[in-house]
Design goal:
- Strands 4-3-2-1-5 form a five-stranded antiparallel β-sheet. A three-stranded antiparallel β-sheet has the order 6-7-8.
- It has two domains: 88 residues, no CATH class; 46 residues, no CATH class.
- By secondary structure, the chain is α+β, with helices and mostly antiparallel strands.
């Protein structure tokens, strides 16, 4: 016999699988469109993949490919997420170092995720948690302790670890 919670989890899984089956890759004019997939050259004929979420957040996949190979973007975004970080707009320039691929639109569930980040002011060294809720349209920053920052969650996943977790870390 299943519990109510197990039934809800099964329903969510079915809805996510249904949404994923009906995804389509689309073109976008703007460089930094939500859902934009990027290919990052790692050197040595290898590349990594990332995808623009909302705001400055980009998720990077635990997937290493060969530079220049044809790839199914739906397969790329179905790959496990290695980490999510904020990325500056500069990375999304058409003449930048990242290859801008097409867009795999964000699901309603991906659009609704509250983004939380631990921050440290470079001058005062004060710690805070920045939070942005795309559904409510709210954002803000609250003072935090080191313990609260260590426990902050990012896009529903644990916050990224030390700086060694870069695309080069994937291979």
């Amino acid at each position: 016999m299943r519990t109510a919670a197990e039934g809800r989890c099964e329903t969510i899984r079915n809805v996510d699988e249904h949404a994923a089956q009906h995804r389509k890759v689309v073109k976008a004019r703007e460089n930094r469109a939500p859902g934009r997939v990027v290919r990052i050259d790692l050197g040595g004929g290898r590349c990594a993949y990332g995808r623009q979420l909302l705001g400055p957040s980009v998720e990077f996949y635990n997937r290493v490919g060969k530079t220049g190979e044809a790839v199914d973007l739906l397969d790329v975004v179905a790959s496990p997420v290695a980490f999510t970080i904020w990325v500056m707009d500069y990375a999304f320039r058409r003449r930048g170092r990242w290859e801008l691929l097409d867009v795999v639109p964000l699901t309603d569930r991906e659009r609704a995720v509250v983004d939380r980040r631990a921050k440290q002011d470079p001058i005062s060294k004060a710690l805070s948690i920045y939070q942005e809720d795309p559904v409510a349209g709210t954002f803000g920053e609250t003072p935090a302790t080191a313990q609260e920052c260590a426990g902050s969650r990012t896009r529903g996943r644990p916050a990224p670890g030390p700086l060694r977790r870069t695309p080069e870390h994937l291979g």
